[in-house]
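no rush on this but wanted to send it before i forget. what follows is a protein written twice so to speak, once as letters and once as structure tokens for the fold. mainly i need to know what kind of three dimensional shape the backbone takes. thanks a lot i owe you, the record is right below.
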Amino acid sequence: MVFVWIRSLRNATNSFFLYLAPPIKVAVLKFKTLSNATNTNNNYTIMHYKTLFLPLLALLTLHISCSGDDKDPEIIKSSEKKILKYSVIGSTGVINESDKTITIDLSSYPDITEVRPYIEISDKATISPASEDLVDFSNPVKYTVTAEDGSKQVYTATAQFFHTDCFINKFFILGREGTFSFNDRTKITVLVPHQADLTRLIPDAEISEGATIHPSLGVETDFTNPVEYVVTSENKEFKKTYTVQVVQVPFDFRIDSISTTKVRAAQILDIIGTFAEKEESMNVFLIDGNGKETKCSIWKYTPSFIRMTVDKDLPVGEYDLKVSYYNSYIEEAIIYPEKIELTDVYPTVSFVSTSRLDPATDDLFIVGENFTPQKETKATIRFTDRDEMMELGAKTFYLKGTVYRSGDKDIIRVEGLNQLEESKSYNCTVIIDGVISKNVDIIDIRKNPTRPQILSISNTNPAVGETVTLTGKRLGSAIVFYAQVVDGSNMYLPVMYLGDQSWQLINGIDHLSFRMPKFGNVTKYKLKVTYYSVESEFSEVITLK
């Protein structure tokens, strides 16, 4: 709005222009000026015009301000809706603005179900849940930020948990596990073979989850002198220093093999390897799944051989076999890589087909239970010379045997008897998967034993399960063979043990009774009996009903 004052020289008229923009409006006010010569009341005249002008000016100003063409200025509200800071006591959250997420370390927070985060947000915005409201971080927490203009933004806050442990749990060099000092768990000693180069050893270790270690593992390190390792926790707040010392042993301590990985209580176990010169420097332990160690008794010891016995009170289960070497200041232990299975199921010998045989012509059959091997089709039969056992010069033969199953009994046909010496007596032991049979039988090696004789049979047409009785001579401890008859040709089946077998001697005549079994679809058999591994001459066809 512009005011312009113009005086006319011709008629002494004064004009007052009022310009309004936009749009431009003009108001003209005219009045005469009275001189002192023509009007003696000049002061009144001037005041008169002032009185007229000022109300008019106010009226025009009011008209302009109330014009319908003008509006009130627009008020703009903020749209800012950010989380600027997010923290709890001892931890500040990391805000990812691009994906609207917040992560915060609550590893050391006492109870993540009751957390009161402190939150800073954009000016004039609000947030729900509010700053310092109680929230549960068992699951991600969602926050809604509302700007002044009403627009909203959702953030998701998630707890992170960094481990605080900083331990070396195990330390290895050349596959050998170090031992911690009894008085100071930060000191570790590792025994290595005497020929190892201490300047170029590559260490390995198991440390706390998420932790880091310095110097690095897996690289060549000089262990001529002790080396310090610093373990730092995952949350970077805790550190622990360990000192590792490497010592060369005076021998190449190792386990090469063991006699079996399946044993029973009180059984002997042989360990082959390289050990200390003195037995007093060695120990053998069986370690159960809970880490409990049971010391084993060493029965015989040489620097390359340890014979130990399993504790008779150990429960069945799987065990680690540990052999340890120690001296006045260090202990080294080797864990055999395979588990030792302690079982209460072991072979049991019921009887053998003969206690006297001619190895050149006779077969030996052993009847019992739990003969079926788990991994192979052969059993091992150990023959130990009884005549020389007391002098520990006994000869031992390990023969193989084929295992058959008959009803609820197992039968082993022993192979290779010609290796046994004539006129000797042997202890006969069955070994299945390294487990030794409970019973021991005595076998005499003799030539030309007397042949058994069958005089009669009670029934040649029995039903399955019916009792059949043979009468004859030398039928005690007999095993019966069945031979299938097909078109007049004999097809011999494996030797079969007859269940519920009983024997009586009446008036010098043997009575051998048994229940007739069923073998597959076979219905016709030829029957023969062996005694002292010699077959009877009697042959009678039996036909099942």
Observations:
- Residues 1-6, 15-52 have pLDDT under 50 and may be disordered.
- Helices lie at 42-65.
